[in-house]
Amino acid sequence: PPTQVLVVGCGNSELSEQMYDAGLCEDIVNIDVSEAVVRQMQERSASQRPRMSYLQMDALHMDFPEALFQVVLDKGTLDAILADEEEATLAKADRMFAEISRVLQVGGRYLCVSLAQAHVLKKAVEFFSQEGWVVRVHQVSSSGDKQQFVLPIFVYVMTKFKKVPGSAAQILEICPEDQDKPTRVESTERLLEAVRDRQHYALLRSQLSKASSVEQLSLDLCSSESGSPRYTLHVVDSPSMKLSRDNHFAIFIIPQGRETEWLFGTEEGRRQLAASAGFRRLVAVALHREQHYEGMAGIQAELSGKVMELAPPGLPAGQQVPFLSVGGDIGVRTVQHRNTSPLSGEYVVEDVKGDDKCYFRRLIFLSNRNVVQSEARLLAPAPLPGQKKRRRDRKKPCPTEPPSAIDKSYLCCEHHKAMVAGLCLLESADPLPGAPLSVLVVGLGGGSLPLFLHDYFSQAHVVVVEIDPSMLEVATRWFGFSQGNRMQVHVSDGLDYVANLAAEASAQYDAVMFDVDSKDLTVGMSCPPPAFVEKPFLQKVKTILKPEGVFVLNLVCRDAQLKESVLATLREIFPLLYARRIDGEVNEILFCQPSPQRPRQPTELLALARALEGALRQPGRPWDSSYVLADMLQAVKIL
């Protein structure tokens, strides 16, 4: 039998006429509350479309018998009715939905064309899903020069099923315009979020297509299969760059594992990247660790259509947009271990290839995935006994499988190098690396800092306090950490451990080092947790420190007011306070001494640092040429 279609709130739209003339359906009944509109449309179609009718009728109170229609079509009527969220307005929507449900056959569909304002979509989805209907939202158009609206247009497809008593199961789906198959979502909130993401993207596209320069912005492109982020796109404009035909637009693929580096992981770094690349608009693309990529060619094929939606205005038609990377390589990332800690949340241990072809092992907390928590360099495999490396081997590409041995002599983190350099403040008659030394380190991570102190200060006794037992397991299994006579780890809260030591009222440590992160990302200070820099606790730190000792604090604080408050508190407790800002990072290393000595001038600090470095450079012991401890103290300020 022919499909019976009801169009509610038809107005003077040409939609019904176009469907009739295209042969899609002819048995179309159109209703509208306006007598004038109905008369106009009847006159326009009477002779040409004899099987299509127009009736004056209110969609909230229809005169049709039950289950008459197979399709109810709504083009903007629901949007017009739900102009606000007042109680009376919501009641009108409920009446219209109830009438649509009454006149629609089981298996029939309610098709609603809408701009999908959040309250409109939520009302429709909640009503029909609770009635046991299948709800699918299709995105049918997006913004662009040829579109009438900046926001995309959606069609809600509500399929009527008999309601099963006691069943709470909901079938909710979304089908974006760039996907052939719908994606199932678990809740109304997630469906609303998915629609909102596409609306925001449409506004963004509109903005980028009209403005040659915008503030740096970032967005995620998600996998159509899993729904998880697959690419993160950073759009960077260089408005001061002189424009030519060939430098409008380019795409830069950030090698896997290097997205945390300053050049790629910060706004300032990406601005520098765009300037050096020489393009007015650069889209820097980060690849996610949970995803698999088929090389540069595969990424280019996958992204070409989508990134062109972000092109600047004035891009010449047909111009080839280059895909750039470091050496044409997408990098290497191997996830070695993944787990969840009750204290630190989900984390991964991964091996990545650096820009100098060396491999590095990294610990990353996925709650803050753009920050490397701990890092260690991996040693290249040694040749077998009697085997000589042939000259041509140097030209062979690096293996895709990284080495596994940890280079314990190398400190990857610049702030760790500064913390070690600060030990030169412990000036003594004996060469410091060979002198008895007691060090307390709060915060283990991968263990690189305490390992270095243990190996290079031969008489040092290092005590490490780590609150998370999972981190001790990670450091031991994946970062070459081990305990011994001169290295002990206490799994405890650093606050409690220091408080208990202070209660004994014994000054026992030459150095106390805090390198502990905060789990509370809402605070403007990510290292250390605020409780570690409160005055009563800092008094306890001073108590356990020898009079000539040094307290070294890794401070990561983006809140200027909070930072000044921390420094003021430190100055109250420690008469001598030095600060070393780590270039290109938020980290600032603070060196605090409890005795009111004369502040050492910059030249003195450099001399002490050079002496320490010279003592550490012992024959037969590995030492990387990048270690210049004097450099770490060259920009120290006396606070």
Descriptive overview:
This protein folds into four domains: 58-203, Rossmann fold, CATH 3.40.50; 212-324, no CATH class; 332-378; 414-638, Rossmann fold. It contains 17 helices and 27 strands. A nine-stranded mixed sheet has the order 3-2-1-4-5-7-6-8-9, with helices on both faces. Strands 19, 20, 21, 22, 23, 24, 25, 26 and 27 form a nine-stranded mixed sheet that branches. Strands 10-11-13-12-14 form a five-stranded mixed sheet. Helix 13 (494-503) crosses helix 14 (535-544). The protein is elongated. Residues 428-613 form the PABS domain. InterPro entries: Lys/N-term_MeTrsfase_sf, Methyltransf_25, PABS, SAM-dependent_MTases_sf. Residues 382-403 are annotated as: Disordered.
Which keywords apply here?
639 residues; alpha/beta; Rossmann fold; 4 domains; 9-stranded mixed β-sheet; 29% helix; elongated
Q: Span between N and C termini?
A: 87 Å
CATH class descriptor of the largest domain: Alpha Beta
> How many H/I helical runs?
17
Largest sheet: 9 strands, mixed
- What's the name of the CATH homologous superfamily of the largest domain? Vaccinia Virus protein VP39
CATH topology of the largest domain: Rossmann fold
List the uncertain runs.
Answer: 389-400
* Anisotropy-based shape: elongated
The percent range for helix content is 25-40%
Order of neighbouring strands in the sheet with most strands: 3-2-1-4-5-7-6-8-9
Structural class: alpha/beta
Q: Tally of extended strands?
A: 27
Mean pLDDT, to the nearest integer, reads 85
Any idea what the radius of gyration is? 33 Å
Give the DSSP E fraction (strand runs of 2 or more residues): 25-35%
Please name the CATH architecture of the largest domain.
3-Layer(aba) Sandwich
* Structural domain count: 4
